[in-house]
Amino acid sequence: MPWQQLTLNVEENDAALIEEYLNECGAVSVTLMDAEDQPVFQVDLDTTPIWNNTQVQGLFAHDAPMDIIVASLRENLPCTKDLPIDVEEIKDTEWERVCMQDFVPMQFGQNIWICPSWETPPEPEAINIMLDPGLAFGTGTHPTTALCLEWLDQEAIAGKTVIDYGCGSGVLAIAAALLGAKEVIAIDNDPQAITATESNRALNGIEEEKLKVYLPGVEGHPQADIVVANILAGPLEELTPIIAALIKPGGKLILSGVLSQQTQSLMNSYDEYFTMLEPALREEWVRVEGVRR
Predict the structure, then answer these.
(1) Looking at residue 98, what is its pLDDT?
(2) For the purposes of burial, counting CB atoms within 10 Å of the CB of 22, is it exposed (0-12), middle (13-18) or buried (19 or more)?
(3) Contact 91, 8 (CB under 8 A)
(4) Each residue's pLDDT tens digit, 225-268
């Protein structure tokens, strides 16, 4: 059964109001998207920044009276009066199958592959991370995840303790475990990330004792030989003393989720605790590396 989709571009301050109104008009879902390819980041906890120019998409049932909904929108929300509003029919889709088509095996470095669970690994003798796209960020497709996986691939991980801070799907923690780390600790403040990491740990046959998953603030785990944190530049700066305390002297720090223009500020933040090395660049994203003093 087809759907009807209403789309308009609005200013940041009007997006939430229009979202609420479309829901009141019977929208099955309302999606806010970037209308101008502008990156935004969560700087403060419990805030949800959006784009200066935001595209609002409302999805309605096939028999919804779209002419009436558009007229009502223009009449009751003056900010929409002169804006172009597009309405189109959207064919129903088996979204699970679309997702499966888009997620294919990917290689990182010489030895690591990420493979969807429904695929046979193309290199059976490689380090194959079986992963499903799901609740949390991190299937390897983003440059920051790729930068971290490639670093882990070339590093001597065997026998070391590794912390994945901001673990998301757990892909970096799982990679470290499969590369032979003695102990891996995955930390995230999002309960969905905890669930996703635990699920992917089981999918890859990794024992709980080898890969432990925690919310932040849990004490008692050892200082690590390696800490990987693929988050965002703002939170990484705020977390500087916390992350530094997780690493033993001589241990290595890998940070990503950082845009090139944010690199120097982040390196300055960690310079008190680490000897910072030359960053690696992928597209507009950066991987920062340091050694604990």
Answers:
(1) 47
(2) buried
(3) no
(4) 999 999 989 999 999 999 999 999 999 999 999 989 999 999 99
| 88-106: b (≥16 Cβ within 10 Å) or e | eeeeeeeeeeeebeebebb
Same-domain pairing of 147 and 272: yes
- Whole-angstrom distance, CA of residue 38 vs CA of residue 50: 9
Query: Within a 13 Å sphere around the CA of 215, how many CA atoms are in the beta-carbon half?
Result: 5
> Which CATH number characterizes residue 32's domain?
3.30.70.120
The CA–CA distances, whole Å, from 12 to 19, 21, 33, 91 equal: 11, 15, 11, 29
Task: Show Cβ contacts of residue 47 under 8 Å, excluding neighbours closer than 6 positions.
Answer: none
pTM for this prediction: 0.71
Q: Are residues 84 and 187 in the same domain?
A: no
Answer yes or no: are the C-beta atoms of 227 and 254 closer than 8 Å: yes
Q: C-alpha distances in angstroms, 161 versus 126, 158, 183, 219?
A: 22, 9, 5, 15
